[in-house]
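Changelog excerpt

This revision adds worked examples to the README so contributors can see how folded entries look when concatenated. The first example is reproduced verbatim below.
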Amino acid sequence: MNENAWFQCIRGCEGRYSLFDVIYNCPVCGGLLEVAHDMEALKQRTGAEWRRLFEQRVRTNEWPVGSGVWGKKEWVCPQIEDDNIVSMFEGHTNLFWAQRFGQEIGLEDLWVKLCGNSHTGSFKDLGMTVLVSVVKQMMANGSPVRAVACASTGDTSAALAAYGAAAGIQTIVFLPRNRVSAAQLIQPIANGALVLALDTDFDGCMALVKEITQDDTIYLANSMNSLRIEGQKTVGIEIVMQFDWEVPDWIIIPVGNLGNVTALGKGLLMMKELGLINKLPRLVAAQAAQANPFYLSYLTGFREYAPVRAGQTLASAIQIGNPVSYERAVKIMQQFSGIVEQATESELTDASVRADLTGMYTCPHTGVALAALIKLLGRGVIKPHERVVVISTAHGLKFTQFKLQYHEGTLPGFGPAELLRRNPPVELPADLAAVREAISNHRAL
């Protein structure tokens, strides 16, 4: 087979551009670019043959196809040389059968895709392995690129710094000062990135990094660069593989910059076109009510769109008021009869805490998706018998402070009536009688 992929304009302008060029926007109209694949070449294998090939590569030690991303190399970036791939065998994250939580909310078949069970603790690893590998190939080809930069609310910077360190490539991250968790802040610091903590929000950081990367020696790593979408699209393929190639009824994903829902849809569409599946799931994009431009646009049927000034939200990684992948995400949602829902701070917090009490350990962004599920189930949009997958985008350990403050009763803006599921430690003297009394009085026993 002679697989090939290239950049092209999402608005349909003519022109193809190499994946190894320093280019982010269409030279004709200024629109975003997307990676296109030679689908006729890929169709030389049947859907059954692709399924067998992908299954053979799962959890092998063969380089690089043991990776959940590079096991689909032909669909991701076929031209790259294996020696230039920078991988930590990302992907292959487990599906958690959320049986108890599902029963509590009235849903029979609920699963949570734990993308946070990854090297840097978020789904961003899936895209960053592709982008950093392409940069390494570009440098080997003589490109002037010498560093890679991103704006981030925490997870993108962690993934970029880790993969850059593994490749020996300098990374620069722009973070909104005092707006990311300590766990997220230390990750790029520890991996040797130049960390610029700026007195602005994510959108301000994004504006600056777009200016800085006008210099061709500094490559842009944000999701407006669709190389990352090629890696992130494998999460949908993995989900279907984990159900023995059966497509769930719904997939719910928290969204901010909108690259993730774009990627999810793209992978599923490729599966259908190439004959691996014969139907598509419904998609739900879940936003925090404090940062909800996609939701507001959805309410107009996507006829209107305006950026918002993102307010403070516990779901800090999606605290984005001007998502760069808006156009791409709209196209995906229309193809999937998608729904956009929002969650208030109270709703996302309660959903996250309830999930933890059934055995999960959720980030607040997963709380946004679970809150959207609860609302759609309550309205009868999602039916109790349908199979639902919620994508958990990051590990809860990145947001320990959020959880501590909830259970200590110190979460800013929350009163006692909103903290009814608190489970603080019981402080006692080292006295047997006191211990026995505390155990006997515990409400759960």
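The second example, added in the same revision:
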Amino acid sequence: MIVAGFGFRGAATVESLADAYAKAGAAAVAATVEDKVPGVFRAFAEGAGLSVRSVAAKDLTAQKTQTQSFTSLAERGTGSVAEAAALAAAGPGARLIVTRVISDDGCATCALAESAE
């Protein structure tokens, strides 16, 4: 299973998320930190036909990310919310197959992880 993990700012739109997703590639599941699921994220995922997985904030910090955002590190305790969400949602043994990409407006990031199963 391939999971698209997302990180995004409050100003992100459905278009921001769609742009980042288009740059990353296809997945079956969209994941982000639990407090960001309602609203624009759910609207994007449902419009794209993706199932939604929420990731507990504590599970983000347990993931080893390949890229580092100072903002993500300061606000969420992880180098990349997108990468950490993808890895956590894909489960134990998951691996990143696409590191975070950034939407053209700079408001959203997306990364892809593949489950070990």
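Reviewer comment on example two: The two ends are 7 Å apart (CA to CA). The chain has one domain: 2-114.
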